[in-house]
Design a protein that fits this description.
The chain is of the alpha/beta class. The protein has nine helices and twelve strands. The longest helix has 11 residues. It binds zinc ion.
């Protein structure tokens, strides 16, 4: 595929060079992080050979298909599988904030760089698979087979066809990343704080104090009566100072969820 700076118009006088077909592309301003400077402001022409699919061309310009909410050709909706013929006016629009669908809590798989974000999602009760040694193929397979949303800083990974739902993290700060994911997937209604192990992602279960008594520090033993245990890693949880700190930190997010 070739990208020309200037497009020659076909059939110009007797000039017998055959022009390549081209289409005009206009990306919504929110795609700026993916695009070269020249492509960020207003429509630009893209030339091509053959009849490339929109997915192919949009990704060649830097935007993973998972980031695309809708595409219009001269105002009419078209799919990413649409094959360009030339002369189209293409508008590319971002995803609207929405839960991934199915009426169930969204589930995630995160790449190796997002360990802190994984813990934050788990604290809020969301199913967030993460390991620091997942390889790209593994991440793609898990996302596809388990219907999980892939969260990553690797835009190439999101360009794989097998990845149906994914999000390229704009921020590198875990707290900002959390807000980013919450907004993109409309998570406010899905938060169930303190019901999942932040260390290993397993749902916690209540446990009798007597059953964990031996493992408690004297002060914990004296002041707390309600305990939860992680069936995955054995960690014991109670509503101590750590709990209060986390509650304060997420107060804004959890407001609607308090019983
Ligand atoms: Zn655990």
């Amino acid at each position: 595929m070739h990208f020309l700076r200037r497009v020659e118009s076909a059939g110009q006088g007797s000039y017998n060079r055959i022009a390549m077909p081209s289409a005009s592309f206009h990306f919504h301003p929110s795609f700026a992080p993916f695009l070269t400077l020249a492509h960020r402001n207003g429509p630009f022409e893209v030339s091509f050979t053959g009849r490339p699919a929109l997915k192919h061309l949009i990704e060649a310009l830097g935007v993973p298909h998972t980031e695309v909410g809708a595409v219009r050709s001269a105002g009419q909706p078209v799919g990413l599988g649409y094959h360009l013929a030339g002369g189209e006016q293409i508008d590319v629009l971002p995803c609207e904030p929405a839960a991934p669908g199915g009426g169930e809590a969204p589930r995630f798989v995160l790449d190796n760089h997002l360990g802190k974000l994984a813990s934050l999602l788990r604290i809020l009760g969301l199913d967030a698979l993460y390991r620091n040694d997942y390889q790209d193929d593994e991440l793609a397979r898990i996302a596809e087979q388990e219907g999980r949303v892939l969260l990553t800083r690797d835009r190439r990974l999101l360009m794989r066809k097998a990845i149906r739902q994914g999000h390229w993290m704009r921020s590198t700060d875990p707290q900002a990343q959390l807000l980013e994911v919450m907004q993109r997937y409309a998570l406010a209604g899905w938060l169930r704080p303190f019901r999942r192990c932040p260390r290993c992602n397993a749902p916690l279960r209540a446990v009798e104090k007597a059953q964990v008594l031996e493992r408690l520090e004297p002060l914990t033993k004296a002041y707390f009566d309600e305990f939860h245990i992680c069936p995955g890693c054995g960690q014991i949880y109670w509503k101590g100072s750590h709990y209060e700190r986390i509650r304060a930190r997420f107060a804004g997010l959890m407001e609607e969820e308090e019983e």
